[in-house]
Amino acid sequence: xxxxLIVSNVLQWVVLLALVVGLFALARQIxxxxxxxxxxxxxxxxxxxxxxxxxxxxxxxxxxxxxxxxGGAQSxxxxxxxxxxxxxxxxxxxxxxxxxxxxxxxxxxxxxxxxGEEPEHxxxxxxxxxxxxxxxxxxxxxxxYRIAKLPYAVLIDERGRVSxxxxxxxxxxxxxxxxxxxxxxxxxxxxxxxxx
Length: 196
Description:
By secondary structure, the chain is an alpha/beta fold. The chain is about 45% helix and about 20% strand.
């Protein structure tokens, strides 16, 4: 009987040690996987003004209020968010833009931009509840930033320089623009590469 207890005790310790080794191996693999799947920021396209360059200066009429001045020194940073009434991803991101505008109001103003026919955009502003944001229509603005895909966002700092920009499809990608500004890097990918 005593031998059976000793054998079962030894087996339990062997199993426990195997579980501990397995747990450490699993934790290591999770760490490796986390490094491989690093957070992706907004997809930065290599066109238009680069991060650190002066943003093109524009003064444009807004569908929702007075003229909007873009570029040059400002009291707040500006998130220039390019949208379209026919873009489903843009519509999905609008509540996120509204939330970011409220939570970051101390340092950020949001300007929505598009091009096309004014009546369509006025209807879009009303339907989506965007009356609280400056909304500009300008083909020249899109061409200056070389916008090819939507939704696209450009973060312009208080000095009038492009802080970060990119194609944004999620809250994380939008917030990566704010993170890039805080870290004074062109993008989160650049920061990760610098750390490696």
